[in-house]
Amino acid sequence: MANSFSKQIVYNRQTLLAVIVPQLRKDGMHYEVNINGYPRFIMSWSALGRYDLTDTEIKMPYEIILAVSDVIEKNVSKKR
After folding, report:
1. The organism sits in which domain of life (predicted)?
2. Cα–Cα distance between 47 and 44 in angstroms, integer?
3. Residue 43: C-alpha distances to residues 33, 46, 58, 71 (Å)
4. Rounded CA separation 62/37 (Å)
5. CA distance 26 to 34
6. Which residues are CB-contacts of 8 (< 8 A; sequence separation ≥ 6)?
7. CA distances (Å), 12 to each of 3, 15, 22, 61, in order?
8. DSSP state string for the chain
9. Which of 3, 18, 61, 69 has its CA 20 to 30 A from that of 11?
10. Under 8 Å between Cβ of 35 and 18
11. Position 3 confidence tier, pLDDT thresholds 50, 70, 90
12. What whole-number distance in Å separates Cα of residue 38 and Cα of residue 41?
């Protein structure tokens, strides 16, 4: 099982620390994302060709979702 990792992302000219915890589930790899001031959310690979929210009920700024998706992709590609 992969270890958690963290990365700073920029949203609205603010630097936010995203802590990402990989989770292997029966339906594939999921990533729990924790950002201070925002609800915890889970991301997985989507049909859009990037990582996306698994729970569509969560209201998150789209820019944060894209930034976290990029962070996960870079981390996954480093390990291959």
Report:
1. Bacteria
2. 10
3. 7, 9, 11, 12
4. 15
5. 22
6. 15, 16, 17, 18
7. 29, 8, 26, 10
8. -PPPEEEEEEETTEEEEEEEEEEEETTEEEEEEEETTS--EEEEE-TTSSEEES-TTS---HHHHHHHHHHHHHHHHHH-
9. 3
10. yes
11. confident
12. 9
Joined tokens for residue 73: 């992709």
Token pair belonging to 48: 């859009």
Total-model pTM:
0.90
Q: In the structure encoding, which two tokens stand for residue 25, read together? A: 């589930």
pLDDT digits (tens, 9 = 90+) for 10-67: 999 999 999 999 999 999 999 999 999 999 999 999 988 999 999 989 999 999 999 9
Can you tell me the distance from the alpha carbon of 42 to that of 56, in angstroms, rounded to the nearest whole number? 10
CB-based contact 39:58 (threshold 8 Å): yes
